[in-house]
Design goal:
membrane; elongated; mainly alpha; ion transport; 2 domains; two-stranded antiparallel sheet; ion channel
Amino acid sequence: MGELCVRRSYAKTYCWVHNTYYVPIDDQMPDENEKKQTLSYYQWVPIILLFMALLFKLPCIIWRLLSGASGVNLDKIVTLTLETQLGEGGKYPETIRQIASYMDRWLDAHRQYQWNIMVRIRQKISQVFLFCFGKRHGSYLSGLYIFIKLLYCINIISQFFILNSFMGNWYSMFGFHLLSGLYHTRTWAESPYFPKVTMCDLKIRQLQNSQPWTFQCALPINLFNEQIFSFLWFWFVMVAIVTLSSFLFWFIRALLRDNRAQYVQKILKASGELGGGEEERRLATRFADNYLRDDGIFVLRVIAKNSNNVVITDLLVQLWRLYKAKPLVINGASTEEVLV
């Protein structure tokens, strides 16, 4: 009895380490040289899940490392705008003026103060390669954000390839198999990809003889693995759709330069700060294209997403008044004279 228990313990340990294979209960056992459907994933499930979680966190880490080089503390600005909605009413106008003054200094500090052929080349490169060389061209922060969105898209697509390779080149269609089974049988049938009972071959040496043994192994862990990876498949599909849609939305918005002027003019008209004259509209266009630029508009959009229309309107009005108070704006300086 003791020897039997030792053999049983040894067989369970061996089969857990050296994988098992699946044979349907109604099928005959395959020959020794016949190809078998090996299951090699169940030992590594915790490690692969941790690795996938790290891949999802990696774009966020890159954003936090690189966004600080833009010169603006976006988290601090968003926090201040949130506090204005919850703080005392008397502090609200002063807080908005402080945020506008901070953004005005940031926008002025990251302008191009010389204009030559190299500056023009870097400006063209920054338009093509997103945030590269874009700090003084007003496209670093917005370009970096789109780049991070692209990393999230690459990540979610690569997750399917990783799991497909890890699970055995069948996982990419796993969700469709589940839906097809539910449609035809109206029940959650046992999947051959997550069998609860498998087979394991091993050889036991006794003196000078090596005897082959085949054991039937129970894998209760697959009961949970099947639920986990079924949920992950549908979750990844949903996340992929949302992530790709968000990336395309921000990318197309960045390509359409007219959106900046339209966004600014819409808010200024609603606040009564912008008249209906052609000169006022041209000034508002220069305000959006030469003063705020892509990064300024991006910060305003982020603030708008995390606050309300009243806050973003008051903040943009303060920036508009600061812009009109600048001497170069009053004198009607051109874009290259302002060196933006």
